[in-house]
């Protein structure tokens, strides 16, 4: 069976998912009587008619939504786009719905085609958001994700599914779970996987019920011998958790992976919520379970931070303070093990984390630095980055972070493209032993295998005000590693000068790459065209603290990234710790419409979505720049690799190592038998 077969199999089968639907408990199955038979026939005819009308209505509606002004619409304003998510009880999902009043850019087909990425995970088409239940099983990395199989906007959320041998190349599988029960009818929302000692995998996820109440549900793989985990069986016991007293019916979602506590002989897991009577506090509740069917809410709260609002997609995991490797989620706290608490803030849609101490007996986690608590301190990423989730990879002993990267263009354009959003490059996470106060995030080393020919430049003197082209040809798929140095004498002289602009500098409120200070900005211009009419700047800016000591900022400037105005173009950034004797270093992954940057080994990271109109295909260029007024910058080295494209396509038998393809064929036969059997029954009824 080839990829097409799988595609048609998954779309032509009576259900677009891998398991048989159950009836609603209020609609028990009964044997049809002769009168019922006639009723059924008339009902079927009527239902078919209604269905046909619905299809026609939907098609015409879709037609009106997708027949957009295109090349002739330059002067038009975008029509009102509705917000997606908040009404249904989750954070805003619309791609930049604030853009509804700006003029529409005449995007051409080739401009839009160029935006699709080459080595970031994307489904074949349509909408994707949060990563769900990532895991490693029998030789495959599994990725599930929030997916709308019908459109490039959020809605009708199912679990898409893909597998990979290396976290880089991906094979699409049939949808794993669809919203077909009363307890998830409004969406199979975010969830996490836990491996049980008997080899089973408990998948806990949030369902939005027919009444839009958020409940937690359980699913297991239907066949553990299947390395592809194609079929998922939702538990008869669902929902296994409903919002507890005092918690809003739409403020209870996104269960974490569970961790085992031997002293309790039980599993614990966290769920995010909020408490508005506690000054709009974001909170993490902890539940205890032995069998994942029945649960006890632990007294107290794992952690709460006032003013931060609803916590989505909470993640809670241990990090080693002495070894450069990841830890299993059940690793207990200890002298060399701290715990990271992360939450996605519904209010500002950013992912915040803090490092602290976990007191399991007291059901309490305490941040190391209360000033850098969850939601008010460190972020995984200072750009576009949300709803992330980690998993422990037992093969490479690492903790890997996945995240949803949304669009910064308009929904109108997304519908034209036929897709929206993607996942960030998977990042390995470590505790930063040098600073002791932050995490390090770095693209998993598997990504390095996409590196092709490299260009190396060393010891380039970037005079104040200089822009230097780096001749690497087409610059759309790159991995860049650069190291900068400022002569200590220039640094010392500069920090003593009176330059009020450098005290309290903030990337987001600055003038970006165009604003000139004594020691910055300097860095790289990516996705630029020859005359830099479009460019995305990735740069450092050295400012001063009130006491005069230097402080380094790391920023992205998207303001000149595109000539189009129906886009969100922002200034992003934060400070990055630079220790004595360290040079300034940055790694940048450029992949068409996404730019991901990692400063100082991953202490501060920024992700941008940008949509140039001229700096595309063969016209993309790369530059170094130094817009400081008063200091030469030495580029000690810059190494640039062109990146190969990762393959992403439907799974077929050639991808099988012996058992999986066999299973796919087997399931196809099973579907055929069920189909023939159904025809036979219908004939008998006739
Ligand atoms: N996305 C899911 C929710 C989660 C939100 C719905 C975060 O479970 O809270 O698609 O993006």
From TrEMBL:
Residues 18-112 form the Beta-fructofuranosidase N-terminal domain. Its main location: other. GO terms for biological process: carbohydrate metabolic process. GO terms for molecular function: beta-fructofuranosidase activity. The chain crosses the membrane at residues 40-59. Residues 68-77 have a biased composition (Polar residues). It holds the Pfam family INV_N. Residues 68-92 are annotated as: Disordered. Residues 447-642 form the Glycosyl hydrolase family 32 C-terminal domain. Keywords: Glycoprotein, Glycosidase, Hydrolase, Membrane, Transmembrane, Transmembrane helix, Vacuole. Residues 120-443 form the Glycosyl hydrolase family 32 N-terminal domain. It is found in: Vacuole. GO terms for cellular component: vacuole. Belongs to the glycosyl hydrolase 32 family. This is Beta-fructofuranosidase 1-like. It comes from Canna indica (Indian-shot). The lineage of its organism: Eukaryota, Viridiplantae, Streptophyta, Embryophyta, Tracheophyta.
């Amino acid at each position: 069976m080839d990829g097409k077969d799988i595609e048609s199999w998954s779309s032509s089968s009576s259900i677009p998912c891998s398991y048989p639907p159950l009836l609603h408990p209020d609609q028990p199955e009964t044997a049809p009587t002769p009168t019922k038979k006639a009723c059924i026939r008339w009902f079927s005819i009527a239902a078919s008619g209604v269905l046909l009308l619905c299809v026609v209505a939907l098609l015409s509606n879709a037609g009106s939504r997708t027949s957009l002004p295109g090349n002739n619409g330059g002067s038009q304003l975008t029509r009102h786009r509705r917000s997606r998510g908040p009404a249904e009880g989750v954070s805003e999902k619309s791609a930049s719905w604030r853009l509804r009043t700006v003029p529409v850019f005449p995007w051409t087909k080739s401009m839009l085609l160029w935006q699709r990425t080459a080595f970031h995970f994307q489904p074949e088409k349509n909408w994707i958001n949060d990563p769900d239940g990532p895991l490693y099983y029998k030789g495959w990395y599994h990725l599930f994700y929030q997916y709308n199989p019908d459109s490039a906007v959020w809605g009708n959320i199912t679990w898409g599914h893909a597998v990979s041998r290396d976290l880089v190349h991906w094979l699409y599988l049939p949808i794993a779970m669809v919203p077909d029960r009363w307890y998830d009818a409004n969406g199979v929302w975010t969830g996490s996987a836990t491996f049980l000692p008997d080899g089973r995998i408990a998948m806990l996820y949030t369902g939005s019920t027919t009444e839009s109440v958020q409940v937690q549900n359980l699913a297991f793989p239907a066949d553990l011998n299947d390395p592809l985990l194609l079929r998922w069986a939702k538990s008869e016991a669902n929902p296994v958790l409903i919002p507890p007293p005092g918690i809003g019916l739409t403020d209870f979602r996104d269960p974490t992976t569970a961790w085992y506590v031997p002293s309790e002989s039980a599993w614990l897991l966290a769920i995010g919520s909020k408490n508005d009577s506690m000054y709009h506090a974001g909170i993490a509740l902890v539940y205890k379970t032995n069998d994942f069917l029945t649960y006890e809410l632990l007294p107290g709260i794992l952690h709460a931070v006032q003013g931060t609002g609803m916590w989505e997609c909470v993640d809670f995991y241990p990090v080693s303070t002495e070894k450069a490797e990841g830890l299993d989620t059940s690793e207990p706290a200890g002298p060399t093990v701290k715990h990271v608490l992360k939450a996605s803030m519904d209010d500002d849609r950013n992912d915040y984390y803090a490092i602290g101490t976990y007191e399991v007996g007291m059901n309490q986690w305490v941040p190391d630095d209360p000033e850098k608590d969850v939601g008010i301190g460190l972020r995984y990423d200072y750009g576009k980055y949300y709803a992330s989730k980690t998993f422990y990879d037992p093969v490479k002993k690492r903790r890997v972070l996945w995240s949803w990267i949304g669009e910064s263009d308009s929904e109108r354009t997304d519908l034209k493209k036929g897709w929206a959003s993607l996942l960030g490059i998977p990042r390995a996470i470590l505790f930063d032993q040098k600073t002791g106060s932050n995490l390090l995030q770095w693209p998993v080393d598997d990504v390095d295998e996409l590196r092709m020919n490299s260009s190396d430049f060393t010891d380039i003197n970037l005079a104040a005000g200089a822009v230097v082209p780096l001749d690497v040809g087409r610059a759309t798929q790159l991995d860049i590693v650069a190291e900068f140095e400022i002569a200590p004498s220039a640094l010392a002289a500069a920090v003593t000068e009176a330059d009020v602009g450098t005290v309290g500098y903030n990337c987001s409120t600055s003038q970006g790459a165009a604003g000139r200070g004594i020691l910055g900005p300097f860095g790289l211009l990516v996705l630029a065209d020859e005359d830099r009419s479009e460019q995305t700047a990735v740069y450092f800016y050295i400012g001063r603290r009130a006491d005069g000591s230097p402080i380094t900022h790391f920023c992205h400037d998207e303001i000149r990234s595109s000539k189009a105005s129906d886009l969100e173009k922002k200034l992003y950034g934060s400070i990055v710790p630079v220790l004595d004797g360290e040079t300034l270093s940055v790694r940048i992954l450029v992949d068409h419409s996404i730019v991901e940057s990692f400063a100082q080994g991953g202490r501060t990271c920024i992700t941008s979505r940008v949509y140039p109109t001229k700096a595309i295909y063969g016209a993309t260029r790369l530059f170094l720049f130094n817009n400081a007024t008063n200091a030469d910058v030495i580029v000690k080295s810059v190494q640039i690799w062109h990146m190969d494209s990762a393959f992403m396509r439907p799974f077929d038998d050639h991808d099988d190592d012996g058992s999986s393809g066999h299973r796919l064929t087997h399931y196809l036969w099973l579907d055929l038998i069920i189909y023939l059997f159904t025809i036979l029954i219908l004939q008998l009824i006739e």
